[in-house]
Amino acid sequence: MGGRGAKSGGAGEEARYRAIVDTAVDAIVVIDEHGRIEAFNPAAERLFGYAAADMIGANVNGLMPEPHHGAHDRYLETYRATGERRIIGIGREVFGRRQDGSTFPLELSIAEWRSAGRRFFTGVMRDVTERKRTEELQRLLVNELNHRVKNTLATVQSVAGQTLRNAADLGDARESLTTRLLALARTHDILTRESWEGADLRDILAGLIESYGDATRFVLAGPSVRLSPKTALSLSLALHELMTNATKYGALSTPAGQVSIGWSREGEGYEERLRLGWKESGGPLVSPPERQGFGSRLITRGLALELDGEAALDYQPDGVACTIVARLRRPPAAVVPARGAA
Amino acid sequence: MRVLIVEDEIMVAMLVEDLLTDLGCVVTGPAVSAESAVEAARREDVDFALLDVNLDGGTSFAAADVLRARGVPFAFVTGYGDQGVRADLRDAPILSKPVDPKHLARTIAAAR
């Protein structure tokens, strides 16, 4: 087409051009300046579900949903009259309409050419449904990631703030803050391994005991229990606080002390609950602390509310005992009227 | 000044509780679900409320409607930004997470 010195090579060359168009992966449709289809390649047949024989001579607007379907003749008219380009030579994403009436996003580029005094337009099209879906998914994931990061930062803000409020000195603050953040990170690791769908209580406990370093000091007994991400995060932080307290003042501060952690499941369906008991023995005589620290506040004030259950911390003389009851499944949120609730 | 806290993440609730207490507020809550938030919004005698937008799959918008009907001012706290708040409620102050204590202090001061 207008190539310098490219004189028509006759039937052989035309067959080669035809083969290129016929084997192209992208749909190629040629129209004249009135929108009548002149050529419709096999990829276009696959894309739109029409046979080329039925499309030759038809108006190309049959391949478009509204508003372009009704307006396309006018677009061509305007272009013929003014030469104003909206799409020719530019390319854009538009919607196509298949024979069955369904629509889909496609990437369209249009080239213009002339032959024997007539004007033609070649449209090259590619279905971008899959790409759009991937882009949408990626957008959702980035938003969700941003939300989770912000929430996690707020959690860190909370842990840091409370640690600094309660710390005896800077060294104590550094130590407490570090181990609390590590406890959060451990739970994140477990949740990430399970795509943030939940965590097994045993994995949470295994991580906790590994961070302590000596499994012989713990006695564990209980069934496998799946925890929601939220329950896993709060519970593991609470257990971390119990362990820190035991290490500093309780059963784990002496060579022979032990911690037994036992748990069971109670009830069924939405009423199913986890009952977990932490009991220290063989440690020094226990007396209640003079003031409430982060750990006891988290357990006695926060945990029960968040887990929709109970949490009790008891400084028994022969060893700290803690009981935590957590709802394992939340009933689907009741329909709350969106507005005008009286 | 009595302030109701609606927040399903207990660590964030504790943070907000501390920040509000520092500002001399008396806090009540936290309500941790959409239903308990509506319940608290109807029942609690408060001067202000701080509402986390997303509550375990639900939202605090119904609670906001109740507070608005009662004439109790409120602000949202969210990790999703303005777009996460229902359009007709966006005239309420929107605080992002993590919480800027100065922004919270200004919001409380404006409501006093």
Explain this structure to me?
The complex is a heterodimer of chains A (342) and B (112). In chain A, helix 5 runs antiparallel to helix 6 (170-193) and helix 6 (170-193) packs antiparallel against helix 7. Chain A folds into two domains: 11-127, PAS domain (Beta-Lactamase); 132-327, Heat Shock Protein 90 (2-Layer Sandwich). Chain A is α+β, with helices and mostly antiparallel strands and 342 residues long. Chain A has helices at residues 11-23, 42-48, 52-55, 68-82, 129-166, 170-193, 201-212, 229-248, 294-306, and strands spanning 27-32, 37-40, 92-97, 103-115, 118-127, 199-200, 218-221, 226-227, 258-266, 273-281, 310-316, 319-327. Mean pLDDT of chain A is 89; it is low at 1-6 and 335-342. Chain A has a five-stranded antiparallel beta sheet with strand order 2-1-5-4-3. Chain A has a five-stranded mixed beta sheet with strand order 7-9-10-12-11. A two-stranded antiparallel sheet of chain A has the order 6-8. Chain B has a single domain (2-111), classed as Rossmann fold (3-Layer(aba) Sandwich), CATH 3.40.50.2300. In chain B, 39% of the residues lie in helices and 25% in strands. The longest helix of chain B has 13 residues, at 10-22. The model of chain B has no long low-confidence stretch (mean pLDDT 94). Chain A binds chain B through residues 143, 146-148, 150-151, 153-159, 161-162, 165, 230, 234, 237, 297-298, 301-303, 305-306, 308, 330, 332-334, 336-342, and chain B through 8-15, 18, 30, 32-35, 38, 56-58, 61-62, 65-66, 69, 79-80, 96-99. Chain A: Keywords: ATP-binding, Flavoprotein, FMN, Kinase, Nucleotide-binding, Phosphoprotein, Repeat, Transferase, Virulence. Chain A: Its EC number is 2.7.13.3. Chain A: Residues 81-140 form the PAC domain.
